[in-house]
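Q: I have two molecules that I believe assemble together. Could you output structure tokens for the complex as a whole instead of separate predictions?
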Amino acid sequence: MKFRSLFLAVLCTLFLGVSLTSCSDDDDDEVTTGVFILNQGKSGNNNAGISVYNPETHAVTADVYMAQNDKGLGDTGLDMIQYGNYVYVTVYGSSRLVKLDKAGVEVASLTFSAEDGQPRYMAAEDGKLYVTLYSGKVVRINAADLKIEKYVQVGKNPEQIVEEDDKLFVANSGWGKDNTVSVIDIRTFEVVKTVEVVVNPNYLQEAEGYVYVISYGNLGNVPYTLSRINTRTYAVEEITTATLMAEHDDVIYLANSVTDWSTHTSTTTFFTYDARRGVLNNTSFLQDSPEARELATKSVCMIEIDPNNGDIYIGISDYNNNGDVYRFTRTGEFVKEITTGSLNPNNMVFFN
Amino acid sequence: MRLFFYRLVLCLLGGGFCPVSAQTADTTRVHELQQVDVSAIRRPSVVRSAAPLQVVSGAEMERLGYQSLADAVRRFSGVTVKDYGGIGGLKTVSVRSLGAYHTGVMYDGIAVSNCQAGQIDIGRFSLDNVSQVTLAVGQEDDIFQPARMFASAGVLSIQTQRPEFRENRNYSLQLRMKGGSFGLVNPSLRYARRLASRTSLSVDGDFLRADGTYPFALKNGKSVTREKRYNSDILSWHTEANLYSLLRDSSRLTAKAYYFQSERGLPGGVIFYNPYNKERLWDRNFFAQTGYEKHFNPRWALKGALKYNYSWNRYQDINVKYDGGKQEDRNRQQEYYGTATVQYVPSEHLTVSLATDFAVNKLWNNLPDCPFPTRYTSCSVLALKYHYRFLTVTANVLNTFVTEKVKSGERPENRHKFTPFAALALRPWQDRNLYLRFLYKNTFRVPTFNDLYYLRMGNTGLRPELAREYSGGITWSGTLWSFMDFLSVTADVYYNRVTDKIVAFPSTYVWKMLNLGKTDITGAEVNVRAEIPLYNRIGLHFSAGYTWQKAIDVTDKESKNYKEQIPYTPCHSGSGALQVRTPWVNMAYTVIGVGERYVLLQNIPANRIEGYAEHTFSLSREFTGKNFRLRLQAELVNFTDEQYDIIKYYPMPGRSYRLSATLRF
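A: Yes, here they are, computed for all two components at once.
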């Protein structure tokens, strides 16, 4: 790893030091040594950025990408995943994909052309990255050198993409005009099935042989809906109303944010869905605390679960000021509220 | 009577041979050494005006090298012009941080309206046929005006040139050719003809094209790269015909027909790493207005006007993300407007006027679920002006009623409001031109069609946005030192409050327009103007203005930006102009400086953009021939090549030049 910044080198050494000396209650847990938070920024303001959060000291470094690369990440950072020893980020407004090392140093970047369309979300599998593009395509990219290999046409304005069962599932939102999830065979990279779901599907998660979909509905009589697709039979089953989800250990963590426009207040309820047994549990996964109650009055824009220890991170944003992230333990106990370095946190990656 | 009137006008403009003593001379005495503009428009006095007023004449704007109306207006104190860059970019005016929606724009006495967007794009008015631009806080002192003039928190008034005929000719012709950087070519023509002894006609035409590909410096982290602004071209033309007639009973009749057309690229904000932009905008605007004014006797006068306005625009964006590869929005607005004002002067101290306006506005667009609204607005004003010795009081109450009809969907509630205005000017010493002035105005603006109906964001439950203005000041003019011809100083402090501000309120997935904002605005402005004759026919004219403004958001005590400066409002800003007139050449230097601003609500370093200063220098010379006048002018705009943005990521051009030649017969 190249450390361009002495400060960040010190920070990373501290992480290593902490990981050697800290104790954890559960022997199965790995220790999270570092956390990146992707801030979307405000569209048109070129202020997407990556904040670094230290899970021990709770310190937040505003923009590690800027600090390490002496330039901005771009406009509207949309998706961030960890694959191999690298972090990949799609920057929608700037129409590019960047590959960073764990210190935030850019090692490669790829710019998409006007015909490609701007990139949205990614999935990674077997040394390849699969990125959805607003031209209605999914592109396969070599994760090592970021070279484009192949395109496949899916539906309109594809959003999230997940891999399950040697297949890629792509949500085609069409900005409300599409209602399908395309299924692509990873080996042949061809569409093998198009599944009809509730209109305007956007978010996908996978667990235990099912792909979970959140559709925005039609912002009218069809609400935000959580459904799931059986990856073998392609049967679709509607589950409940939800606006946001995250998955960990075969549990889908859900939030439903509703805004009453006459009083401009928002209410969010938290609940879970047991993917193994197929049962919805309406009890909140957060324990009652002043912070959990405060979150219930906001519109939630991010739920991330630390895969190393199950800690829950919930992000809120008022779209005008820097975003806030609330951290809870895996049992829902409040830990800390942190302010990120820019607007609209939307993704987190956890290093161990 | 008429002879006196013309002599008075010559006095006001020519100076020197006016039988008024220097001690009581007021600021309307302006020395124009080389040009005599005989126009029937009275230049209002910035010192005597009870409402803070700023004036610039067309001749002055030409000599100082102002490039456009937006360029002239942004130099006024207390004004924030949002300029999205380039010759064709959108430019809107906000007076004392109240917002562009609260600024009324009048073109030759009749309001220009845009019910869809609510803000007037002043970038489209060319300066070629403008004779005077005034900016009044509150409203102008003259109460013999249509009701709409009383309905805004600030009024920007544009007056066009009246026909001028020299030496008993019955025609006049002006040809002008302008050219400059970034492919600017701008010819214009003005032809006026006396049709009968008391009727004249003038016809204007101008054409403008520019490729707008200006270089700019882009800062990204530590690197600064030179880029070019693409998709910033403009092609526009405008033509106007005016008829002026003095009827046999001394009543005045005017008629105007105006057409404007443009096609321009919208370069959009600069996005790091992605220069692709293919947005374009086509505009077409036609309006016809006719006015009538009759003074029956010294007590009674009547004024009326009718206007029809049609505007059409088409927006296009080509991008693979749209269904079909492109998005096209088309809008059409129509307005039918009528006004009548009656003025009664019962005594030499009191003037009373009653004005009533009626307007019908319709919108059509091709967006899904367009409700095709029709808005009916009726305004009436009862105004009075009382002048006695050292005191002048102006007061009025405005009654507004708005109702709307829609073809589908919900319709908003009817609005009915009474809003007052009062202004006071005191002159403590009769022999000195020192005035104290105070102003209070309560206004509101109804939600625009976009606020109410636009896709999912629109909210028919919106209430009007309210603005309250308080202003106080001192003005003075006179001759302080013997070498000065005159000096005038105006200083004002003000406090404004905007409540029920219509803002877009976000939740994670949908944004909606709501009455949510509250803004507290405190400010101070100082304006100075001086005329210094140096030697023989060499003179110096100096003017400067400075504004301090604190406009803070006081909507939500819990939010991170509570009591922080609202976006794009500088704390400090100022402008200055210096003209040196000699018999050989006229020189002018102007500067505008704006302090740092914040681009988003939170006042943090990441959101700050730097202040800037733009300097312009111009040289001109007029040659007089047997029966023609030729004026040549050269301008170097932004000669320090300052790289700046008014709106972040919409860079403004660096150094550029312009040359123009004007031939007048």
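A: One point stands out. The mean pLDDT of chain B is 88.
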